[in-house]
Amino acid sequence: MVQGLQHFFSRAVVVTFFWALVSGGGLSLAILALTFSSGCKPVPPLPDYKTQTDSLGYQALYQQVWEVVARDYVDPTANGQYWGRWQRKYAGLMQSQEDAYVAIETMLASLDDDYTRLLRPRDMAEQSIQIESRLFGVGLEISKIDQELRVIAPLPGSPAEAAGIASGDVITAINGEPAALLSAEQAADMIRGEKGTAITLTLTRKQNTGESKTWDLPLVRDEITLHTVFTSGLPQAPDVGYVRISSFIGESAPEDFMDAVEPFQDKKALIIDLRDNAGGLLSNAVALSDALLDSGRIVSIEGRNQKLLQTYSAAPGQVFRKPIAVLINGGSASASEIFAAALHDNHRATLLGTTSFGKGLVQKVVNLGESSNPVGLNITVSHYKTPNGQDIHIHGIKPDITIVNQPDPTLKQATMRLLRSKSEHVNIEAMLLRQDAVINRAVQVLTQNVAPTSQNAI
């Protein structure tokens, strides 16, 4: 496999299989965990541009960003403007770090490219956590629901799971400080800390009797591995395996995928669900595509002035050789689109769902700051084409069979009630899988050999 440093970002979210099925990632989600180790794999820092008149480096930081864009940005015309006009536009006007950040963000906004953006220290920290797929904390996913800080689910193997915290529990205080007015992100910040340190959560749980139980729960933070690949049996099709990939961002995604597929060798077919997968690492998209192809082009990367930079191709050997269906929707972007197109264009999989997001741009992260105060630039440096030579940016990938999942509203309401009030685990995942129209159609295609044509669309 060829490992790359390019990163794909559209809407960076970390979701679990459970939550993606319940809400499609629509609600705010925070991972309670906690300190991170550097893992963004940025390019080396640029030279020090500080001068006697810029002792704090505000102009230097601005200058670094300007030079990186002038040198590396995919569009040599910089969105049809004279880029030199920005070089000294704010010279002598930046008196604080915030001034520098705002000036840089204003300059970058002129490119009209949502993906080329300044990464402030918090952004760099969150990105490191996602790429490393490692963090330190208690291992909870939370969301603000009905003005309460609710537990979505404890992560497998986490201190929270070991302590018996359940979906639907409400966090009312963190180390004695009321949590009602906190956002999910603020709560995550409060719970962050080093491995081995202690924290106390105050929780409330509704009982089956209708009464509520409140208790203080001391926890010790530990190292937690984030998984983005999840498997499940399909109650409606025992002979079909189901794998959901929620993100391509974690470095462990290829290994996790291999482990997930291995138990399905006796299945007759496989469904790979990429719905609401916002992307991740190029290297992961290439590795997972290679795992399911014996040969053929995976993706081509083109830089400034349409210069061909790299072509990735599959090598012999597959981890699963039976029929495959890949599910996509408007939330499937960048790396997930590369994977879906690679399998589709090489006649390895049938695509079902709705047209994908359409992000055909490639970014890299440039480290601009010191290790004590990391600042980065996420910059578009190239774009990609599918094996068939298609540029899907903005247009997206159209599925072979277009079908929209419209969950039973009664089931959806029941699911939300369970999220808000249940006192013990319920297999909501199985309920939702059975009701999922896209999954059911994929099962039909795989087991009955329904021809993948637009006439079959529902």
Explain what you see.
The longest helix has 15 residues. The strands form four sheets. Strands 1, 4, 5, 6, 7, 8 and 9 form a seven-stranded antiparallel β-sheet that branches. The protein contains twelve helices and 20 strands. The chain is of the alpha+beta class and 458 residues long. Strand 12, helix 7 and strand 13 form a beta-alpha-beta unit. The protein is 27% helix and 24% strand.
Structure described in brief:
The protein contains twelve helices and 20 strands. It has 458 residues and is of the alpha+beta class. Helix 2 (58-72) packs parallel to helix 3 (97-109), helix 7 (253-261) packs parallel to helix 8 and helix 8 packs parallel to helix 9.
Q: Please state the structural category.
A: alpha+beta
Number of strands: 20
**Which strand-content bin applies to the residues?**
15-25%
Major sheet: 7 strands, antiparallel
Helicity range: 25-40%
Residue stretches low in confidence (pLDDT < 50, at least 5 long) are: 1-55, 410-428, 450-458
In one word, what is the shape? flat
The radius of gyration computed from the alpha-carbon positions, rounded to a whole number of angstroms, is 23 Å
N-to-C span: 38 Å
Rounded average pLDDT: 79
How many helical elements? Answer: 12
List keywords for this structure.
disordered C terminus; 6-stranded mixed sheet; 458 residues; 24% strand; alpha+beta; 7-stranded antiparallel sheet
How is the topology of this model organized?
Blueprint: H1 17-23, E1 30-32, H2 58-72, H3 97-109, E2 117-119, H4 121-132, E3 134-137, E4 140-145, E5 148-154, H5 159-162, E6 170-174, E7 177-178, H6 184-191, E8 198-206, E9 212-220, E10 222-225, E11 229-233, E12 240-245, H7 253-261, E13 269-273, H8 282-291, E14 297-302, E15 308-313, E16 324-328, H9 335-345, E17 349-353, E18 361-367, E19 376-385, E20 401-402, H10 409-421, H11 428-435, H12 437-448
Parallel strand pairs: 12-13, 13-16, 16-17, 17-20
Antiparallel strand pairs: 1-4, 2-19, 3-10, 4-5, 5-6, 6-7, 6-8, 8-9, 11-12, 14-15, 14-19, 18-19
Helix pairs in contact: 1-11, 2-3, 7-8, 8-9
